[in-house]
Amino acid sequence: MQMVEEKQKVCCDYCKSEDLKMAYKAPTTSRNLEVFVCRSCGFIQSWPRLSGIYDRVTSVSGEADWGYIRYGKQLRLDASMEIIESNINLNNIKSVLDIGANRGFFLNNLSKKYPHLDLTGVEPDKIITKESPFNSNIDLFVGKIEDYESNNKKFDFIHSSHTFEHMTSADKGFKITYDLLSDSGYFYLELPRTEMIDREDFITEFFIDNHLFHFTRDSIKKYANNYNFDLIYEEKHDWENHVFIFKKSKDPLNFNPEEIQNNYEKNYELLTSYSKNRKQNLADLNHAGSEINKMINSNESIAIWGMGRIFDIFYHYADVNWDGINYCVDKYLPDYTSEVNGIKIRRPEEVLNNISIDTLIIFSDAYIEDIENEAKKILSSVDKIVSYNNLMKRK
Ligand SMILES: [Zn+2]
Q: For a disulfide at 309, which of 62, 121, 273, 390, Cβ 3.0-4.6 Å?
């Protein structure tokens, strides 16, 4: 039989317009993904819409091939629980569905804290569901939400964190969620905040190969509006995540006109300046590298905290003499991998307990303050603490 490769017609997932403009292609994409902006509504989305879990590589990367370890949800658990508990009384809820249950962090936590809850998880990744134990009272469906049969069961609360951007249709995701909710049921939705790429010193690749949709605040509200969700909560200060709580309703939301306008121009500009800035930042990283090498050459005792995506970019672009770094630590990564680019990763408490160092360099964006506080607690003394982006600034 002759296989004919069908070329997908580029069509906006939100407004169905075919008038999309290609705005960006990650230089390191291995799926040939191109990022488009819809001229009719402004929604940012990638093509082609391939689906499925592909071979897992447990390497840490700051480029487009990142996304296989999937430990981000563990980092977010405390923050999302706080938001949920201050907006929803979980004692009055009977059933919960987690779309993209991942390693079970969220559901296991609920099962411990709220044993009365009837819990269901849907997660297509066979490897991580096998690796990570889900509590025995959790009903787990290993597959995609599109294939999940609820047999008319409705849920009082649906949770979905960092999952809709992986779907082949976000529109379908919203429809399925709406249909699975009981009347007045709650929907917690968390997604990467695409607007964060407006930061001038961005160095990691935002448009990774397993993200097909790139939500901005207004695009999430437009979808919610299409499916008659009421807005209960909207996070406005988180730099890297959009967090919303919606409630199933019978009428569409009433938005301010400026919230549902076509943001095509603005979003196209966001992508083109990100592309330009990132290219320049990568070229400039040797400056930051030589700042680190200066510390090494003056025999400072140095620790690096954060061995994830930012570290990987520094490793490849900054030309640092890595042998001169005394300690390389990360709080979560050692659970999943023992080294990054051949450099062994230690847990902070393993090597930094009660010792004195000259310099701590933090390779993180969202957790700079947390890391600083934690480091001060376990180190006996540290002379200076710098974040990676401070090293990038030319004096
Ligand atoms: Zn559109």
A: 62
